[in-house]
Known about the structure:
This protein is α/β, with parallel strands linked by helices.
Amino acid sequence: MQEEIIDIKDVSKMFATEQGLSIQALEPVSLRVKENDFICLVGPSGCGKSTLLRIMAGLEQASSGQILYRGSMVTKPDKRLGMVFQEYSLLPWRTVLDNVGLGLELARKPAEYCRKTAIKYLEMVGLENFAGSYPYELSGGMRQRVAIARALANDPDVLLMDEPFGALDAHTRIILQKELLKVWEANRKTIVFVTHSVDEAIYLADRIVVMTAGPGNIKGQIDVSMPRPRDRANPAYGKLSARILDMLEEEVAASQGVGYKQ
Length: 262
């Protein structure tokens, strides 16, 4: 039986505008994540899915409710909760090897340990031959692989990923989806992955959490039972995609105050 690793309890989020107005980004959201889960959050733009992920990472504070990681409240960033952003956030003056080993270096690990660990994860993402390169010498897809390797090198318990492939072209995105699944299978990290792409969610996830239009809440949770690697030509794949797209279209229509027709 899988152990529960993250428990999101009635988490809401309010933002104050420069004009002094309050905007609710999240209604009270509750969600449980089990160890080794691969969960994708999908929802209309502005539904608060990235905000929820940042609260899970301790990068933002909830307005109410709480998030428990292995029974302890998350109130600040924790190295056991690794974050991968859509932006590559690599340091341009450091080599690929030094970028991957940065977290270990900051944790005051021995230099040789940092080097060996960085090489290990570069090999895992297929970039060991670019260890001495600088970020500007890499393609967008390669830079995102470096960012993933850096997150993995810190050996987090949970990997939180905020649209990490959103800025990539379609072909590179598909390649990195396959690479991510290989890494996940090898490490069995718990992953919570935010995406706008229904196709990406179906390809990757064990469970898809569909969110409502803002203020965000959970509209539904769908277990994806198709075996991996998943075939996009499988009729079940298309059927599930249509189901989720209908849920999202319903939310967009509701947010615009128009009727929805099946």
